Amino acid sequence: MQYKGDQSYFTEGIKLNQQEIYIAQVDLYVENNIVQTPIKPTIRIVTPLYNEKNKRLGVLALNYLAQNFLDQIESDSKNNSDIKLLLLNDQGYYLLSDQKDKNFSFMHDNGGKCII
Fold first, then answer.
1. Phi and psi (nearest 5°) for 13?
2. Using H for helix, E for strand and C for coil, what is the string for the chain?
3. Domain coordinates of the chain in residue numbers?
4. pLDDT tens for each residue of the chain, 116 residues long
5. Bridge partner residues of 44 (DSSP)
6. CATH 1.10.8.60 fits 8-107, yes or no
7. How far apart are CA 59 and CA 90, in angstroms?
8. What is the reported pTM?
């Protein structure tokens, strides 16, 4: 198991109360600081885990493979030729565009090493 305590989905998830959830931003699946290929756009859904005495034990993080979600958005936009669709994250970086090499480029350097 890799250390994930510095990941934003963990640091936000550990702050939650019982029955709350945190949905992280879409990014790429990373193992040992390397962006995995083929790329796997991922959404993480996080909730804290408590024991019967209401003591926080940790967090449960579910990885949702978001490629189907992105494919559906892209497919829907192609059905309407008057629309050019771009999907950006909150910093303005491409998640989905007509230039595939720009999608998720904020996640890695040219060697595939994760830079965020």
1. -65, -35
2. CCCCCCCHHHHHHCCCCCCCCEECCCEECEECCEECCCCCEEEEEEEEEECCCCCEEEEEEEEEECHHHHHHHHHHHHCCCCCCCCEECCCCCEEECCCHHHCCHHHECCCCEECC
3. 8-107
4. 678 888 889 999 999 999 999 999 999 988 888 888 888 999 999 999 999 999 999 999 999 999 988 888 888 777 766 777 788 888 888 898 888 888 888 886 655 555 65
5. 63
6. no
7. 25
8. 0.74
